[in-house]
Amino acid sequence: MTVHTNLEATAIILATGFAGHSLLEAALIIASFALGTGLHLACHLGVAAAFGKGIDRMILTRAGRIDYSGAPPGFAENILRTGAGATMNALCAVVGYALLAALDVDTWPSVAALALRTFARCSLILTIINFLPAVPLDGGLILRSVLERVVGEARAMRAAVIVSMVVMAAMAIVGVVLVQPVLIYVAAAITYDNWRKHLVPQRQPRTILR
């Protein structure tokens, strides 16, 4: 398995630190998102391995992409494999908030309490974003798989892209309201990628006659 990333993906992770109110909180936010992303990808790999498959390549750019090895998955396998990462983020958020509610974290060292709160909050954000019905996020891929069983592959892809654009527009508005440039950028980038790849007619290579 190979892992590919670029400066853009690194910059997006680092930019999440701007949500912090101090350098410590900024560092904890970056670390929490990095850890949450690692757990997310590990669960995709774990479910693939459970079905006797693997991962050839992980591409960590913008929303990212995973190239699985082995035969094409069945419907149930595809849904479980796709939803595994965001489900892990949801589990981390639930456990984190449960600990905050059950334990007296005010008696903890301030750094430990802030770290737990930050990780729980970042896990919740990762859960919500990854389950959004927008291609190529996990929620969008699940939506596309469900639609394919109803209307066919071509129409399902087009419908999923249109839904994705609406969802990303809403996310950009949230980013403006909350003053979160990262949300605005990711929404714009995903919308542009979907528009260019799926809605713009592809140019056919010219044939030179001799």
Annotate the secondary structure layout.
Elements (H helix, E strand, L loop, with lengths): L1 E4 L1 H9 L7 H28 L3 E7 L4 E5 L5 H28 L7 H21 L7 H14 L1 H25 L3 H19 L11
Parallel strand pairs: 1-2
Antiparallel strand pairs: 2-3
Helix pairs in contact: 2-3, 2-4, 3-4, 3-5, 5-6, 6-7
Structure overview:
This protein is mainly alpha-helical. The chain folds into 2 domains: 1-130, no CATH class; 132-197. The chain has helices at residues 7-15, 23-50, 75-102, 110-130, 138-151, 153-177, 181-199; strands spanning 2-5, 54-60, 65-69. It has a 3-stranded mixed sheet with strand order 1-2-3. Helix 3 (75-102) packs antiparallel against helix 5, helix 5 (138-151) packs antiparallel against helix 6 (153-177) and helix 6 (153-177) packs antiparallel against helix 7. The longest helix is centred in the first third of the chain and has 28 residues, at 23-50. It is globular. The protein starts with a strand and ends in an 11-residue tail after the last helix.
